[in-house]
TrEMBL record:
SUPFAM superfamilies: DNA-glycosylase. The keyword Hydrolase applies. It comes from Cupriavidus pampae. Gene3D superfamilies: Hypothetical protein, domain 2. Keywords: Glycosidase, Hydrolase. It comes from the Bacteria. InterPro entries: Adenine_glyco (IPR005019), DNA-3mA_glycosylase (IPR052891), DNA_glycosylase (IPR011257). It is an enzyme of class 3 (hydrolase). The keyword Hydrolase applies. Its EC number is 3.2.2.20. This is DNA-3-methyladenine glycosylase 1. GO terms for molecular function: DNA-3-methyladenine glycosylase activity. Pfam families: Adenine_glyco.
Length: 206
């Protein structure tokens, strides 16, 4: 009996064959996001990832959601020292006092930002690079060197001025990749076209 042919999905090399990476790559990375809760989650998790592998964060994401009230900005902004101690005792997350306190601080700064901005999404999408400034082709070698951009530097500088923490240019570029401000799926990756279509259909929040 002839076995059916199985189509091999071409992906960016960074996700390899690791199931958690592949699912994240195929369904989230590079796709545009305009939901403030999801954006705040991404900001926090990118900060916790600093110095660690993203795989570690992905595998702890559900624990992070439970520990941080599903990343509800209003709830996290009200966390106090008792919550910090609770989180430091939670083995399901990354127990780093500086990063935990930064997430709480950033929730408070996010509420301040929302006093003058219609949404977090509207603020972050203002830093989307112009198409003309982006490489014409994203190759694996090029992607390996793309850790910051003029826009991620500008975003980092503005957030730091507003009092946010763990928002360096490299972390902000990773956020831009994650939320679809840039599409860094390499040429030949089957998800690249899917992310492009999603961006064309996406209405940038104003």
């Amino acid at each position: 009996m002839t076995q059916p042919n199985h189509v091999v999905r071409e992906r960016c090399s960074w996700c390899g064959t690791i199931e958690d990476y592949c699912h994240y790559h195929d369904n989230e990375w590079g796709f545009p996001v305009d939901d403030d809760r999801r954006l705040f989650e991404k900001i926090c998790l990118e900060g916790f990832q600093s110095g660690l592998s993203w795989l570690t964060i992905l595998r702890k994401r559900e624990a992070f959601r439970k520990a941080f009230a599903n990343f509800d900005v209003n709830k996290v902004a009200r966390f106090n020292e008792r919550d910090v101690e609770r989180l430091l005792g939670d083995a399901g997350i990354v127990r780093h006092r500086g990063k935990i306190e930064a997430a709480i601080n950033n929730a408070q700064r996010a509420l301040e930002l929302l006093e003058t901005e219609p949404s977090l999404a509207a603020y972050f999408w203002r830093f989307e690079p112009k198409p003309a400034t982006r490489p014409k082709k994203i190759t694996p070698d090029a992607l390996a060197t793309m850790t910051t951009s003029p826009e991620s530097i500008a975003l980092s500088k503005d957030l730091k001025k507003r009092g946010w923490k763990f928002v360096g240019p490299t972390t902000m570029y990773a956020l831009m990749q994650a939320m679809g401000l840039v599409n860094d799926h390499v040429e030949g990756c089957s998800t690249r076209a899917e992310a492009l279509r999603a961006r064309k259909a996406f209405e940038v929040p104003r």
